């Protein structure tokens, strides 16, 4: 199967849904709306081929290429005039959130590791062609000073900041604690926890009532995988940070929530996120019988940014195919 075929297969479900939605609205005056898509087959349920890329991995080189809603997400002005910064917005779940935010009317800044420039350019090209403002700010989030500079720059270039998505993460699977080096442990903590702290701390003074912080946790926040000891520990910290910060910021009218994905097909998984030889098992054991695609999480990020959900704060929302975690 060629890349093109893989990509076509992946988009097929979304394209059909899109067509059904259009047809549904057209027949709405004369008959019943089309049936909803079957979630078991809306995206590929085939095992993924074994593959490995050098960290941090490029989405455009994955087989199949993940679906971040590029061809399917349609906005309806829910975030018109909003200004959002998404870390890890070049690929995977962050890209899906960035695309959805832009199509809902927000101006978007995305941060990514400098070697991910090709993926970031793909997002920028797509959204700028649609007339949206996209600011690209590469840099290393393990650097505290860069975290502060990132917030200052996003604020300056967007003319404010009222949505912060702390989504970047480092994940390396290791069978045993004995194989986790101090360097790996440190990098996982710095990327997943410290950066969230530095970015939130710098952004909050710039935020007005109505702003939203959205952190990306995981099913590992409450149900750790044994081979993700360090990563799962950071995801547990992200859940508690979300709940505690929401208590502090309620008084300022700023909401803080967390999205908890289950197995989602993204670059993180092919850059050391899974143990060698395990790629074909990825997501196959969910009750839905498949891994998720980033596009399936976009709606959660939009909902948590949307001021319509004004009483929702300090909460976690899952997308995991029914694993029962969050
Ligand atoms: P991804 O690889 O597309 O995104 C992770 C991003 O983190 C990268 O694109 C990169 O830009 C960024 N990043 C990592 N280290 C960085 C650094 N030092 N400086 C700057 N940027 C850095 O993979 P994803 O799966 O979409 O990950 C997004 C979030 O989803 C993460 O928080 C991850 O833990 C979470 N998550 C993913 C899954 C899954 O199965 N894919 C499951 C649960 C949670
Ligand atoms: Mg990436």
Automatic annotation (TrEMBL):
Keyword Cell wall biogenesis/degradation listed: no
Source superkingdom: Bacteria
CDD domains: SDR_c1 (cd05355)
Signal peptide (from-to): 1-28
Disordered: annotated segments: 30-55
GO MF: oxidoreductase activity, acting on CH-OH group of donors
InterPro entries: NAD(P)-bd_dom_sf, Sc_DH/Rdtase_CS, SDR_fam, TAT_signal
PANTHER family in the cross-refs: NADPH-DEPENDENT ALDEHYDE REDUCTASE 1, CHLOROPLASTIC, NADPH-DEPENDENT ALDEHYDE REDUCTASE-LIKE PROTEIN, CHLOROPLASTIC-RELATED
Family listed: Belongs to the short-chain dehydrogenases/reductases (SDR) family.
PROSITE patterns cross-referenced by the UniProt entry: ADH_SHORT, TAT
Protein's name according to its UniProt entry: Uncharacterized oxidoreductase YghA
Keywords: Oxidoreductase, Signal
């Amino acid at each position: 199967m060629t890349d093109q075929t893989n990509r076509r297969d992946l988009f097929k479900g979304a394209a059909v849904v899109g067509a059904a939605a259009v047809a549904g609205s057209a027949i709405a005056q004369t008959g019943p709306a089309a049936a909803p898509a079957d979630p078991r087959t809306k995206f590929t349920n085939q095992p993924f081929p074994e593959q490995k890329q050098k960290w941090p991995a490029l989405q455009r080189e994955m087989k199949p290429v993940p679906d971040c809603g590029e061809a399917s997400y349609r906005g309806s002005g829910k975030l018109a005039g909003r200004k959002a910064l998404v870390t890890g917005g070049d690929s995977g779940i962050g890209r899906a959130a960035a695309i959805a935010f832009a199509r809902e009317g927000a101006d978007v800044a995305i941060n990514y590791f400098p070697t991910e420039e090709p993926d970031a350019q793909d997002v920028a090209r797509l959204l700028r062609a649609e007339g949206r403002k996209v600011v690209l700010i590469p840099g290393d989030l393990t650097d505290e000073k860069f975290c502060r500079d990132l917030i200052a720059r996003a604020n300056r270039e967007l003319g404010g900041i009222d949505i912060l998505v702390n989504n970047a993460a480092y994940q390396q699977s290791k069978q045993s604690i004995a194989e986790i080096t101090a360097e790996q442990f440190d990098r996982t903590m710095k990327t997943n926890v410290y950066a969230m702290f530095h970015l939130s701390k710098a952004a909050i003074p710039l935020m007005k009532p109505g702003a939203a912080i959205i952190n990306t946790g995981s099913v590992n926040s409450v149900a750790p995988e044994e081979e993700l000891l360090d990563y799962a520990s950071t995801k547990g910290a992200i859940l508690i940070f979300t709940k505690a910060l929401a208590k502090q910021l309620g008084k300022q009218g700023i909401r803080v929530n967390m999205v908890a994905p289950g197995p989602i097909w993204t670059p993180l998984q092919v850059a050391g996120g899974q143990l060698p030889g395990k790629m074909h098992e990825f997501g196959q054991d969910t009750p839905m019988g498949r891994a998720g695609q980033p596009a399936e999480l976009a709606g959660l990020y939009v909902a948590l940014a949307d001021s319509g959900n004004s009483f929702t704060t300090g909460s976690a929302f899952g997308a995991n195919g029914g694993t029962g975690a969050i």
